[in-house]
Every structure is written in C-alpha cells, then in structure tokens.
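Preliminary data (for renewal application), glutamic acid complex.
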Amino acid sequence: MPCQSSEQLNELVLKAKKFTKQGKVADYIPALKKANRDELSIAIYHPDGTCISAGDIQQKITLQSISKVLTLALALTDCGEAEVFKRVGYEPTGDPFNSIVKLETNKVSKPLNPMINAGALAVTHMIKGKSIEERFGRLLTFIRELTGNSGISYSKEVAVSEFETSHLNRSLCYFMKQHGVINEEVEGLMDLYTKQCAIEMDCLDLARIGLVFAMDGVEPKTEKRLLPAYVARICKTFMVTCGMYNASGEFAIRVGIPAKSGVSGGIMGAVPNRFGIGIFGAALDEKGNSIAGLKLLEMLSVEYSLNMF
Ligand code: GLU
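Predicted structure:
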C-alpha cells in the first residue's frame, strides 16, 4: 500500500515529535551542537516521482555516517567486490561506531564492516582519483546523480569543525596504516572523510537516494541505472545488519527495512521496490540514532506494513 497523504504523515510526525525531548543533540563535533533538538521532518519518495512530506523539509542536514553507504557504493563500483573486502569485513560489531577495540583484538587487523568509522575510513581510502580534490569531486558528482540535484555540496563549517577535533578517527587511521589496511597520508584521508561526512542535503534529496537503493540501483522515473544491482544489494544488506549502529538488530525487528542513520540525526531508508525515506530529527538516543526518527519509522512500519521479514 502506498503512503496515502502528507496529512497522514503529519499526524505521525506530531506523535513522534514528542520523543525529541528525551534525546540529545550530538556535541562531539562542535558545529553539530547548533542543531535544533525539537525538529522532526520526513520525506517519502515514490517510484512514480511523487513525494509526500511533513515537517520542515527544507532544513538541510549533513550526512555524517549516512555517507558511508554512498562511499561504499562508489568504492565497490571503482574497485570491485573482491578488492573492497580485502580491506574491510562483512560482520556487525556490537560496539559503538567509533570503537577501536576490535581492530586490535581481531586476528586479521582489518575493520569488521564498512559502517563503523574504521571501516568507512578504509572504504574512503579506496575511492579513486589523483588528488583529494578529485576524489571528493567524484563523490559529489555521484551523489548529485543519485539525488538528481546538481546543487548538492558540503558544509565547510561542519567539515572543519570535525577535522579539527577528529583525534579518535586519526588514531583509527594510524592503526590501520600500521597494519597495511590503508597506505596514504592520514591528514589527506581525514580531509576527504570529514568533507564526505559534511555533505549537505534536505530530506527530499535523502529520500531520493533511498529510492534508488530501494529500486536496486535504478532511478525509476528516468529508468537510468545509477548503480550496479549487486552494489545496491550489498549496501542494503549492510544497512540491515549494521546501519543503525549497535541497535541494528532491534531496528530490524521493530521496523524491518534497510536504513542508515548519522549523528546529525538523519536517517535514510529504502523500502524494497516501494519507496525511499529521508528523515531528520537532531535529538539522538544513547546509541546515536534520531530518537523521534526511530519512533516515526516504527509507526510507519506498522501503518504501511513495511517490515520485509
Ligand atoms: N563524522 C562522524 C564521525 O566520524 C560520523 C559518525 C556518525 O554519523 O556515526 O565521527
């Protein structure tokens, strides 16, 4: 059943919005502290090009960890499956996204999956290009294609704010450099990674990307293939197993769709063969997921029978 109307969606947003009060805005990246804790917005993009939305959908958010799905898609397209999984594994960790512990305790010192920071840094390392600028430019071009929006860019303020405070991410890079997972200069990789995390868009753009994944890599309106089907499949699988931090198991049971969240409070969802979802709600729960965004998805999943399991 398609989602009926923006009015219906609005009612669900009003119900879910109450939960923002129980969450906290991310503050370990100083620029993210400025976000408004009370906001909640959603856009749903259907294959026929129609969109329904609720809340302040013009509000732009930085992708943060949602970008990890997109860099994975680009690295897989650039290097192929075999090459990518030489440097990063397939398994969920159960640890926080920025944890270093498994890098040391695992026998083969490679990150367990591409959705944790260590894995995402290893994936960003594989994006091809002669310089950081060229690699970032390729990522932006790819994201502009996925959204159909040539105006997509990044927030310099958020990128600089993270670059200046990313000590833990730097330590993940140095650890992986020691073990041969990455072999480039750490500062350059951090520059690229913090810019990727600071790429900005609104909920509608996010929902359009979700739709491309939902449709196995094809933009349904133009029928243009933007991703190989196997790349869309791998990305969606990681979204299910590790997309919602170490709450991914509970999310799979309660909501049951491929989704990826970020510490800015964004969530991108891909309901297979049905629609793409973009959500923004800056107040986070203790695991780092948008607290009201999760409630909203739980309600949507029941209301529209989204659970694929
Ligand atoms: N830029 C953030 C970091 O690396 C992304 C984290 C997230 O959204 O989970 O810490």
